[in-house]
Amino acid sequence: PQLASDFPSAEVGLITAASHIKAVANFKQVSQTLEEFDVEERPPSVLQEKYPNVTVFQSAVRSLQADQHTLQTEDGRSVGYEKLCICSGARPKLLTQDQPYVLGVRDTDSVQEFQKRLSSAKRIVVVGNGGIALELVFEVRGCEVVWAVKDKAIGNTFFDAGAAQFLIPSLEAQRPPRDAVCKRARYTTEQGPEGNSDGGPEGGLHTFTAGPYHTGHPTTLRGHLQLVEEFTCSSLRTKGQLMVSPTVGAWPVYVRLTNGRTVGCDFIVSATGVVPNTDAFLQGNNFSLAEDGGLRVDDHMMTSERDVYAAGDVCSACWEPSALWQQMRLWTQARQMGWFAGRCMAADVLTQPIELDFCFELFAHITKFFNYKVVILGKFNAQGLGADHELLVRCTKGQEYVKVVLRGGKMVGAVLVGETDLEETFENLILNQMDLTPYKDELLNPNIDIEDYFD
Ligand SMILES: Cc1cc2nc3c(=O)[nH]c(=O)nc-3n(C[C@H](O)[C@H](O)[C@H](O)COP(=O)(O)OP(=O)(O)OC[C@H]3O[C@@H](n4cnc5c(N)ncnc54)[C@H](O)[C@@H]3O)c2cc1C
Ligand SMILES: NC(=O)C1=CN([C@@H]2O[C@H](COP(=O)(O)OP(=O)(O)OC[C@H]3O[C@@H](n4cnc5c(N)ncnc54)[C@H](OP(=O)(O)O)[C@@H]3O)[C@@H](O)[C@H]2O)C=CC1
């Protein structure tokens, strides 16, 4: 859409293997960098009606000759281009390939397959500890779930152990009584917790280093969910390959976990990340690939091939990033990159200069896990900061979890779980890099209206 509206006189072709296009709906700019929206599948005609200069070709791209500026589609078409943007996304990085008992979840088809298999399953094993696993274990009902997590706490790609511990009760069969207790703490990672009791309603220390869920033994949550932390899948055996004891039951597949335990199940969901879709159709060209397999792009979203840009999950941002931004393969970044790539392509055609967009200044993501609103900003997990940081935490059981990452007294990241209403203020504090040393003790004081404070 960005290209089509920048160049109403140019022909814009969208080639997609999917029968529907993904459209952004209910877009809301929450703050300078935070945006919230839904992704909906719509028929391609919607795009063509809005932008008459867009033609949608529904076929997969089979091959590309970047040096000749042409590509071929599976349905036998040859398409020439002046500028090309590759947005072929990523696919699940499965534990093992070509194993009918291992499913990945990616698109409508794979979700339908998952639902079909789930409807007759008695037990499934979920492997992985990121976005998909978090969503899945919360949603699945009517089937036993064994969740094998190789870390000490759940949700390692989004949270630290503190946030994980805050979220665990949402997975418990019986929610704890609503004895909301607000605890505040300040601690540095090298020194361990260094609590204070100066102002929260109950004050006191809140440590997150070890909890009842870090035992390494399975924990039963919600009756049907068993969480096995610090262990993951080491091998798979199908029924025929394993001596099945009649007491164990004849499951179609058995998973051996790294703790030695063997778990039988109907199928395994491998929610273990993604790999960029760069193979097959891009072979024979000279694309530089990043370590994670993505197409390397510069600050113009340009790949190493002339006139070929890339955006979204397929690319790896290889420019010198802002100190507060990192790439994560998310809708938010796919939308921002696609929009910016369109602007770069237009600017290059018009030989106009273009600067890296402001949205790449600060990492910002808003989502929902376990029915809680989750906002993550900047270096939310102190990524790349080593020991050079300090954490401030406020936690009110069942209500909110707030974590701030400070470096040299300046805020560089935050995790906000629940309706904290702090996102805009914290975003500003991160962007303006104000020295917060004098305010550190009050920053998370729940009795202070922080927005007013910094007005
Ligand atoms: C189950 C699940 C839940 C998620 N939930 C969230 C969430 O809540 N929030 C969030 O921010 N992110 C979420 N994500 C991540 C998000 O979906 C991706 O980051 C985003 O879709 C990437 O967009 P993209 O356009 O780069 O790639 P995709 O959305 O994967 O689109 C790539 C398109 O390219 C097409 N394609 C591929 N190869 C070819 C070819 N050779 N020829 C023609 N077409 C081709 C595909 O058919 C597809 O339509 C989720 C991901 C999954 C799997
Ligand atoms: N609400 C949201 O924002 C959502 C976002 N998404 C996005 O969709 C994409 C796909 O999601 P997902 O597949 O969950 O990917 P993620 O990258 O989020 O998580 C993958 C998880 O699997 C772990 N892992 C990798 N290999 C193994 C292994 N061999 N054994 C055990 N664990 C392993 C990773 O650990 P480690 O990190 O240590 O490698 C990580 O915890 C991601 O980009 C994700 O951000 C998905 C759903 C919801």
From TrEMBL:
It holds the Pfam family Pyr_redox_2. Keywords: FAD, Flavoprotein, Oxidoreductase. InterPro entries: FAD-bd_OxRdtase, FAD/NAD-bd_sf, FAD/NAD-binding_dom, FAD/NAD-linked_Rdtase_dimer_sf, Rubredoxin_C. GO terms for molecular function: oxidoreductase activity. Residues 367-433 form the NADH-rubredoxin oxidoreductase C-terminal domain. Its cofactor is FAD. The keyword Magnesium does not apply. Residues 35-167, 255-338 form the FAD/NAD(P)-binding domain. SUPFAM superfamilies: FAD/NAD(P)-binding domain. Probable FAD-dependent oxidoreductase; involved in the cellular oxidative stress response. Required for normal sarcomere structure and muscle fiber integrity. Belongs to the class-I pyridine nucleotide-disulfide oxidoreductase family. PYROXD1 subfamily. This is Pyridine nucleotide-disulfide oxidoreductase domain-containing protein 1. The lineage of its organism: Eukaryota, Metazoa, Chordata, Craniata, Vertebrata. The gene is pyroxd1.
